Amino acid sequence: MRGLWPLCFALGAVAAAGGRLSPERSAVWGPGLRAEAALPARYFYVQAVDAEGQRFTSSPGENAFQVKITAPDEQFTRVGVQVLDRKDGSFLVRYRMYASYKSLKIEIKTGDKHVAKSPYILKGPIYHENCDCPQEESSAWLEEMNCPQNIPQIQRDLANFPIVDPDKIAKEIPQRFGQRQSLCHYTIKDNEVYIKTYGEHVGFRIFMDAILLSLTRKVKMPDVEFFVNLGDWPLEKKKPPQSLHPIFSWCGSSESKDIVMPTYDLTDSVLETMGRVSLDMMSVQANTGPSWEDKNTTAFWRGRDSRKERLELVKLSRKYPEIIDAAFTNFFFFKHDESLYGPIVKHISFFDFFKYKYQINIDGTVAAYRLPYLLAGNSVVLKQDSIYYEHFYNELQPWKHYIPFKSDLSDLLEKLHWAKDHDEEAKNIAKSGQEFARNNLMGDHIFCYYFKLFQEYASLQVSEPKIRDGMEKVPQPEDDLFPCTCHRKKAKDEL
């Protein structure tokens, strides 16, 4: 719940759009107002409140607030800013810095009047994403990032490994998995990243390399040695033929003992927000389609044929087109029988999914990695029961954050009828799912999860992590147009 805004507002009265916007009473909060909370794209929130102290629950207009960010000490400020209207009376403001600054001035106005305590002065130095300037004290970084003290999924995953012997796993894991699987063997030593790859298909290492390099630019990582599975399926069986081995994977299952990380898709969207990606946990919040009452009441799904149940879903759609609109955008795994599964349809923007009130989430090869973005919309998610899970699934509650349906789809129609007959309850489930995504799946939460995972895993090591034969150093990117000066390194050098 760390993303929630001040409790006095959360419990306060609400205003329909139409009340007079009060600059003084409107609220501004979030990690993007803290100089130390370095993220690829920093962000904060603005909540519209009227003169009576009632918060808006629908948009006061997408241009209600103007945000300007400048570096008072500099001739130019290289900061990209976007104000995203979440259509519920609140706005998400995100900004990406392309250089580091001694201080930043954030002005938030409505008309010519400052909002809340604007202007906000961030006293630096304030480092941009590519600045290699790690906080030496992990406890200080965890506090700056407002990370939770413990994360239940990490505790569950690591409970299987009372101790970790880097010397032992460095031999045994490549022998057991290295010939058939795509693996990365990583060592972080003195805050430098080293890698050795196994298998043919190791292109997905770019996502793991990127998050590790980003972390080491921000905080001094513990010395740690570990293996990452680059494939879709979890590797370590619940009851392995020999001793249990710690394998880090992007997806877990109830039939395996892999250590789960945020998916490569979610990780990449955090690192490339306001950059290479258009779909991320922030952009989706400003593109949630029509209001609940104005959404199309057909259930919606698009995707490829990566699981048998997806074929069944499309067949259901052909039988009940007034209830379900499901179609394939690509055929790859199964023979395409157009008489059964219809013609392949064109891809549509993910944001257009939210024109529909009911979103069907069904496994692909493993868990469907779109779930974070579906939850962040304001449609209700119907989620297939599954053995597979992402790092946050175990914190989700059926009937609170989503509507469950059986893995064989046998009760999907029944659940859709329930949702249609209980519209207010379905709307509340959609709202709860959205709040969960907003408060648990943003960039700072993902960075916290990775760091806590490696920190706690490192504490289980009983021998020294080593840079093994065949490992190569993963270099930090050197194409930064505006190199920074790290005050921490300068102070250290002067000692």
Features:
5-stranded parallel β-sheet, Immunoglobulin-like, Rossmann fold, 4-stranded antiparallel β-sheet, disordered N terminus, disordered C terminus, 3 domains, 495 residues, alpha/beta
Structure description:
The protein has a 5-stranded parallel beta sheet with strand order 18-17-19-20-22. It has a 4-stranded antiparallel beta sheet with strand order 2-3-7-6, with no helix packed on it. Strands 5, 8, 9 and 10 form a 4-stranded antiparallel beta sheet that branches. The chain folds into 3 domains: 123 residues, Immunoglobulins (Immunoglobulin-like, Sandwich), CATH 2.60.40.10; 165 residues, no CATH class; 159 residues, Rossmann fold (3-Layer(aba) Sandwich). It is flat. It starts with 6 loop residues before the first helix and ends with a helix. Strand 19, helix 9 and strand 20 form a beta-alpha-beta unit. The chain is α/β, with parallel strands linked by helices and 495 residues long. The chain contains 13 helices and 23 strands.
